[in-house]
């Protein structure tokens, strides 16, 4: 990092103005030139500025020890090794703090955004991002790469997928000017693929997923390879290539088993269940969903709820209403037993509420829930498939009640939402 950038970073992190940093040492205009790397001061001036800003000497040349520690911590986070990331956190924070190097603390605060997202602490990550944003102008290109990458991941977790893609693309532009290990390029390519997938841009998703897969296989990264095969399966499923999607899931299954990753195996089983459901193979679909729940037994609640919902819908589609209701009740109980479950997982509260009422005989509460809560909620979130399905259920309800004008309205809405989902 250049001298001017280090001085500016240290000053900003201490909350000092240029006037306060320069007072009694040099003029403000000369400090401004130094910070912009337009002037090189003498050793005596550097020493005085370093003392005032709390910068330790002897930090040039090869990568310092704190940097190696930060990168090891970051690799643990990229590998989603929560235990290792937690274990290293305090030591890395202390090492960066005691280094007296503003660059070290910037890297720590950047990586802390990624760490909090790994822990699913979205509010903490948002607060960490706000503090880092103030220092953006003083960041060099390697720092800006991580800045845009982590802001992209934050936006993705906030379900702002257009913003996430935009930030990832900024990181990608900087990646081309820097030397990074293959696993880093693979990680960014995978994140780009995820963003494209959320935006239903299938061909871009396939391109970036295949790049991530190629780089991951070269590094024998089994877990990332499995994740890539799952994402390819989703892409092929959306293209109607069900058999090819199943082949991708089977490859993902082998890699996940070799990596001994139970959650990932559970995700693969869930996707196999979805594909078997599309092939109208009810028993196989149910079996895969049930296996998924076994592997996800210790997983976060959201990872289990998505499979409970899929299993519920498969039972309902097969007209096994007794098992559908039982599954809906089990999902509902999970929400009830979890602190703030109904509010933090509001979408699943709506899903299970819809099916509990649907299976219990509908009625005015069913109409109200779909018309005023479920359909507007999923429509606003651009989850058009769910919104279209529930619009169809409401249309059927009105048709049975001989309210044909209302039925026609919601049938049209269901068709319109499906067109939005596919972009046609």
From TrEMBL:
Domain of life assignment: Bacteria
CDD domains in alphabetical order: HTH_XRE (cd00093)
Pfam families: HTH_3, TPR_12
Transmembrane spans: none
HTH cro/C1-type domain location: 7-60
InterPro entries per record: Cro/C1-type_HTH, Lambda_DNA-bd_dom_sf, TPR-like_helical_dom_sf, TPR_rpt
Gene3D superfamilies: lambda repressor-like DNA-binding domains, Tetratricopeptide repeat domain
SMART domains registered for this protein in UniProt: HTH_XRE, TPR
Protein name per UniProt: Transcriptional activator NprA
């Amino acid at each position: 990092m250049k001298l001017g950038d280090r001085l500016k970073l240290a000053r900003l992190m201490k909350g000092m103005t240029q006037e306060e940093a320069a007072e009694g040492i040099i003029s403000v205009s000369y400090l401004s030139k130094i910070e912009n790397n337009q002037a090189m001061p003498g050793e005596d001036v550097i020493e005085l500025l370093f003392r005032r800003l709390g910068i330790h000497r002897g930090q040039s040349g090869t990568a310092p020890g704190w940097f190696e520690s930060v990168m090891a911590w970051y690799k643990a986070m990229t590998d989603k090794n929560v235990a290792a990331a937690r274990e290293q956190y305090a030591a890395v924070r202390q090492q960066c703090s005691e280094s007296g190097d503003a660059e070290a603390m910037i890297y720590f605060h950047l990586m802390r955004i990624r760490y909090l997202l790994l822990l699913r602490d979205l509010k903490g990550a948002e607060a960490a991002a706000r503090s880092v944003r103030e220092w953006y102008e003083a960041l060099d290109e390697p720092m800006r790469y991580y800045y845009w990458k982590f802001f992209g991941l934050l936006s993705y977790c906030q379900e702002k997928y257009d913003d996430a893609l935009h930030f990832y693309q900024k990181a990608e532009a900087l990646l081309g000017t820097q030397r990074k290990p293959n696993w880093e390029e693979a990680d960014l390519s995978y994140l780009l693929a995820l963003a494209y997938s959320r935006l239903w841009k299938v061909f871009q998703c396939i391109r970036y997923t295949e790049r991530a897969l190629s780089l991951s296989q070269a590094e024998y990264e089994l877990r990332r390879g499995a994740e890539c095969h799952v994402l390819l399966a989703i892409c092929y499923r959306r293209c109607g290539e069900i058999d090819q999607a199943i082949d991708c899931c089977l490859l993902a299954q082998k890699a996940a088993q070799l990596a001994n990753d139970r959650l990932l195996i559970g995700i693969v089983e869930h996707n196999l269940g979805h594909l078997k459901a599309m092939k109208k193979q009810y028993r196989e679909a149910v079996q895969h969903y049930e296996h998924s729940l076994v592997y996800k037994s210790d997983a976060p609640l959201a990872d289990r709820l998505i499979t409970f919902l899929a299993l519920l819908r498969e039972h309902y589609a097969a007209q096994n209403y007794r098992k559908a209701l039982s599954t809906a009740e089990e999902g509902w109980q999970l929400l009830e037993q979890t602190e703030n479950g109904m509010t933090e997982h509001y979408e699943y509260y709506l899903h299970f509420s819809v099916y509990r009422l649907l299976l219990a005989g509908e009625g005015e509460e069913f109409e109200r829930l779909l018309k005023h809560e479920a359909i507007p909620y999923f429509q606003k979130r651009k989850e058009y498939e769910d919104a279209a399905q529930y619009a169809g259920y409401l249309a059927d309800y009105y048709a049975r009640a001989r309210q044909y004008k209302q039925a026609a309205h919601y049938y049209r809405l269901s068709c319109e939402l499906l067109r939005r989902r596919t972009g046609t």
